[in-house]
Amino acid sequence: MKITGKKNNNFFRKNAAGWMLMVPSLILFAYFVWIPLLESVRISMYSAKGIKLQQFVGFKNYADVFHHPDFLPALRNTFSYTLWSLIIGFLVPIVLALFISEIRRGKSFFKVGIYLPNIVPGMAMVLMFGFIFRPGQTGILNILLAKIGLPPSAWLTNPHFTKPLIIIALTWKGAGATALLYIAGLQGIDPELYEAAIIDGAGIWRRIVNITLPCIYNLAHTLLILQIISVFQILYEPLVMTNGGPNNASISIMQLMYRYAFERYDYPKASAVAVIICLILIVLTVVYNKVNRKRDY
């Protein structure tokens, strides 16, 4: 028993500095993440009048959310946003990073250039793309098309275009910051690998496929799941650009939560939607990590 006690004391002494650094972060994380999440679970189990909880109703709010006519379109659109973000938004930062890493002059200029959209306030970006893709004769893109003799397009009022166009706007704003992370990862690759490949006669494409991409695989793996989590919570882009239209073609599950909370003031159902989103993201993260572990083995 004495030996065990001494071991425990030595363990805490050795790790005291680490715990001192971690505890403030853990407290803040618990206060701003776990406590609100648990409070959302509690609120979702009650009925309410305004912000005052009335009585315990169990899973009734969840049942009402599942049976709401906008729930399935919102869930389907959210997965569609995630898919489009992987098709459009995931590869763009990698291509930008590879391009900037390969050029010899002007790297700083291009780094600043691709990061500038990230400085633009999100709402200003959404309004700007709303003007660009506005249907009819007043949209900026349609005005440019008219200059070269092409007819105007419906753009954001066309249900086939809304989600890709919203993802393009989202990618324009966020791709630069992600590309800088990839550039930092590329700078950590040993230059001798490229020198050996060049001596062996490998062209740029073979160097990218056989050296660059495998070396940034772990970074891309992390950024991919972070992108899925981020895009799954998309809200103000469809809210401002299309208000979920046309005919719920672009409504997201976060927008459904927004409508419950700030249009109907039904906070228990809004909390139920928040819990559903959290559970879906947990499941997606666990499945994604398991699939990647199997591939690694």
Tally the beta strands. Answer: 2
The end-to-end distance, rounded to whole angstroms, is 41 Å
Rg result: 24 Å
Q: What strand line-up does the widest sheet have?
A: 1-2
Fraction of residues in helices? over 70%
Overall mean confidence score, pLDDT: 85
Features:
297 residues; mainly alpha; MetI-like fold; 2 domains; two-stranded antiparallel sheet; flat
Give a structural overview.
A hairpin with a 2-residue loop joins strand 1 (46-49) and strand 2. The chain has helices at 2-14, 16-43, 60-66, 71-89, 91-102, 107-119, 122-132, 140-147, 162-187, 191-199, 204-215, 217-232, 236-241, 253-263, 267-296, and strands at 46-49, 52-56. The chain is flat and about 75 Å long. A two-stranded antiparallel ribbon has the order 1-2. Helices cover 74% and strands 3% of the residues. It has 297 residues and is mainly alpha-helical. Helix 6 (107-119) crosses helix 9 (162-187) and helix 14 runs antiparallel to helix 15. It has two domains: 1-43, no CATH class; 71-250, MetI-like (MetI-like fold, Orthogonal Bundle), CATH 1.10.3720. The two termini are 41 Å apart.
